[in-house]
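Hey, I'm writing a tutorial for new members on how sequence and structure tokens pair up, and I'd like a real worked example in the thread rather than a made-up one. If someone can provide the structure for the chain below, I'll link this post from the tutorial.
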Amino acid sequence: MTARVGRVDHPVAAVNDLEPARERYKQLGFVVPPAGRHREWGTANVCILFSDDYLEIRGIGDSDKFLAGLDKFLVHGEGLCGVAFNSKNADESYSEARATGVTIEPPKALNRKLVLEDKTLDLHFKTVMLGHDLYPGLTHANLCEHLTWNDLRQPGWLDHPNGVVSFGRLTGVVKDFDAAEKAYTLLLGAQNVKRQADRLWLNFEEGANVELITAAEAERRGDAQQARGDAYLAAATLLVKDVAETRRLFEGNGVRFREVEGVLAVNAADACGAHLYFKQA
């Protein structure tokens, strides 16, 4: 990969208010840790954790600080607003990307303190922002190196009643497949980009893959979001231990969903605007 881009680390869902969002995601059957704030940015977040990836729910904590485009995204409503790819070494990713002509910013430190009942977690990351033309169909993307990976996963935080174990797929909408293929080949390498007649696949060595589709296909699936323009992150699929148990939990909690060939598609209004699918692992 030309920028040492690893697996999908975490998709991000943007919300107007974190506390109601925490309750909404608990209703979906997730274990939802307390919220924390990024010290260097103006964003606050909650991380719903799985063994190898996670879902970040992000809101505004201080509108006077850097918001990474969150405020502009929320003008058009809540929902999936981007993805972070893993970087095992942010400095190496940056150096290699620069050497191959990839538009990228130097790594920056990011810290989040998370206050629990019995202790305070001091969580550290390095983040690398990518040029906007490098990730069509994902709304926003960056690289993330975890410096305190194990501290992020506390006992019980991975044991979700809905049975979710990981992400399986992210789905984005693009208008220009030629431009998207060129951009991702530059970022990921040609071996990780597969072109088909009506879609583009980004395949990684492990974890979730990325499917880029047309606006017409997103409309057919019920995932079209016209306010986002002609290129955006449209949906995410989560893998569960037992989809029948997930279905029962949704029914018991009053979660609205439709079922398509055994896959549960949650009403976006019940997931703070995010289009989420739950599929048997």
